[in-house]
Design goal:
The protein is mainly α. 73% of the residues lie in helices and 0% in strands.
Length: 415
């Protein structure tokens, strides 16, 4: 046991504190009508090493509340579970039913805010910085969407499945955009290089999706594999490893694995196990996102202005782009709920910000712009969706009517 680094024990303690306090706040958040992921984000900001967590670290003399590689590893596991559960909720049949409107909504929902942000921020920053800010504000957080639908019990509704499929396809489009942007900022901009990146990623995603949906359900028909409760999770981990090796985000592999397992005989049991895991770890990603934000960056001149401007472009561009294509399938109220539910940004934008910062393209301030934009859009989008989600909920059954009482006829009893 002595070989285990001391920081690993502190990380486990921090995780347990995060999850325990988050669960306590969930009860209060539900009573006041606030989405639980909003309370998770704010809890992370409060307990970060830049706020109350830093004060507690100084008082106890131990660096408990810090974001390190161990914490990030568990947060990534939380995201993988969220996207796996999202895939399980609709399955490939749901993705197929979503059809061209979902694809068009995802493509337009990324390209419109990307183009708007690039035009606006290229007036204030270099082209490379503007490109990274634009692609960071383009991608909807499928983890936030999955958590919203899960917490509001809308995952199994037709509109909720369409919403989740648009968010998953949105991530694919965002990753293709990111590949193109990295090709450009790397100084390799030419039509052949950009076109090759787009085609390569799109083909790899489609092939992996179709192969998974065709192979995994057939394997789970084998009695020995179907009865093994851990087998669907083995497929999950294998697919995540494959997509990461191909250059995709791990969340894409998790979603594809969920789609494939949902078509198998093991789907029902796997959903039950996944729901238990989400109760334990589902909040961690959002708490950690909040814990990475340095509240002192709010004092940097212009950061809040640029972050709010980027958030406004991200929100307005997404709603304007998604609504017309969602309207092709759903009522105006349902299309509005879907479009505002696509506002939250999260893991993809934060990954993009981290890449830009590691490559020296983004500064601490421009990274702060991405972080604040992600938090603002997540809070605003979650609250707006919470107000609009009545349109997605299935109509409650009418209470059974009592048959009228039959008064017996005949002579009355003698008094």
């Amino acid at each position: 046991m002595s070989a285990v680094p001391e920081v690993a024990y502190y990380a486990l303690l921090e995780i347990f504190v995060f999850l325990a306090v988050a669960e306590l706040l969930h009860s209060f958040a539900r009573k006041v009508g606030v989405p639980t992921l909003v309370s998770d984000l704010l809890l992370g900001v409060l307990l970060s090493s830049f706020a109350l967590g830093g004060v507690l670290n100084s008082l106890i003399g131990v660096p408990i509340f810090v974001v390190n590689d161990y914490i990030l590893l568990f947060a990534d596991f939380s995201v993988i579970l969220l996207l796996f559960a999202a895939g399980l909720g609709g399955g490939f049949a749901g993705l197929r039913r979503a059809g061209p409107p979902a694809v068009l909504a995802a493509v337009a929902g990324d390209l419109v805010p990307f183009a708007l942000a690039l035009v606006v921020f290229s007036r204030f920053y270099s082209v490379n910085v503007a490109l990274l800010l634009a692609v960071a504000c383009a991608a909807t957080s499928s983890a936030v969407v999955a958590s919203l639908l899960q917490s509001e019990r809308l995952t199994d509704t037709p509109v909720g499945q369409f919403h989740m499929n648009v968010a998953a396809l949105d991530d694919v489009v965002a990753l293709v955009l990111l590949s193109v942007v990295l090709t450009i900022v790397g100084g390799q901009f030419d039509v052949i290089a950009v076109t090759g990146s787009i085609v390569e990623l799109a083909v790899a995603w489609v092939v992996l999706l179709l192969a998974s949906v065709l192979i995994i359900p057939r394997l789970l028909r084998v009695p020995q594999l179907r009865d093994a409760q851990r087998m669907p999770f083995l497929f999950l981990f294998v697919l995540v490893a494959v997509v990461v090796a191909l250059g995709f985000s791990a969340v894409i592999g998790a979603f594809i694995a969920g789609l494939a397992v949902a078509e198998s005989l093991a789907a029902s049991r796997t959903r039950q196990i996944t729901e238990i895991l989400l109760i334990l770890f589902g909040s961690l990603f959002f708490v950690v996102v909040g814990a990475q934000f340095d509240v002192h960056e709010l004092l940097v001149p212009g950061l809040i202005v640029f972050a709010l401007l980027l958030a406004l472009i991200a929100a307005a561009g997404k709603v304007v782009a998604v609504y017309p294509f969602a309207r092709l399938r759903w009522t105006p109220a349902q299309a509005r709920a879907i479009s505002v539910g696509m506002i939250p940004r999260g893991e993809i934008g934060l990954i993009i910000g981290a890449i830009g910062y590691a490559d020296g393209i983004l500064t601490q301030t421009t990274l702060g712009v991405v972080l604040v934009m992600s938090i603002v859009t997540t809070l605003a989008g979650s609250l707006l969706f919470r107000r609009a989600d009545r349109a997605i909920r299935p109509a409650a059954p009418l209470p059974p009517t009592r048959p009228p009482e039959v008064v017996p006829s005949g002579p009355s009893a003698p008094g």
